[in-house]
Amino acid sequence: MIMFLFIALTYISCKKDKPTDQNDEEIVSPSRGTRTEFTLDSIFLYAKQIYLWNDVLPGYSNFNPREKYGNIKPELSAFKNELFDISQLKLNPVTGKPFEISSQNSVPKYSYLQIGRSNSGGTRAGFINGEAVLAKRIIESDDKLIAYIALGSFPSLISAQSKLDQVFKEMATAKPKYLILDLRSNGGGYVETAEYVANLIAPSALNGKIMYSEQFNQTLQSGKATILRHQPYLDENGKTVIYNGRLATLADVDYTENGNTYKFNKKGTLESIQNVYIIVSGQTASASELLISCLKPYFNVKLIGVKTYGKPVGFFGVNIDQYSFYLSSFLIKNAQGWSDYFNGMEPDLNVVGSANPILGDPGEICLKSTLSAISGKIQLIPKKTASISKRNIVVQSSVFSAQDNVGMIENRLRLKH
Question: pTM of the full predicted structure?
Answer without folding.
Answer: 0.86
